[in-house]
Amino acid sequence: MTVTFPLTEKRDAETLLKHLTLHNLSFPGNCVVSLKAHVAQVSSSHTTALGTARTAW
After folding, report:
1. Which DSSP symbol is given to 27?
2. Strand order in the sheet with 2-6
3. Full residue range of the structural domain in which residue 25 is found
């Protein structure tokens, strides 16, 4: 499953990685993170954790 996370000044890539860790998702452990200009695409087979992380973001 791949989910898009919007990035802003306050919610940057570093904040996203910390947020994913709170949901038991770790890069490069069990998810893949691709950064674009204003979004990050996160892929993981842990769909429940990824969905929860996206909802909480």
Report:
1. T
2. 2-6, 39-43, 32-35
3. 1-54
The pairing of beta strand 39-43 with beta strand 2-6: antiparallel
pLDDT in tens, 1-51: 999 999 999 999 999 999 999 999 998 899 999 999 899 999 999 999 999
Cβ contacts of residue 1 below 8 Å, gap of 6+? 43, 44, 45, 47, 50, 51
Whether residue 6 has a cis bond before it, omega within 30° of 0: no
Question: What is the reported pTM?
Answer: 0.91
What are the structure tokens assigned to 31, written together? 């998810």
Number of domains the chain is built from: 1
Q: What is the C-alpha to C-alpha distance for residues 46 and 11, in angstroms, rounded to an integer?
A: 22
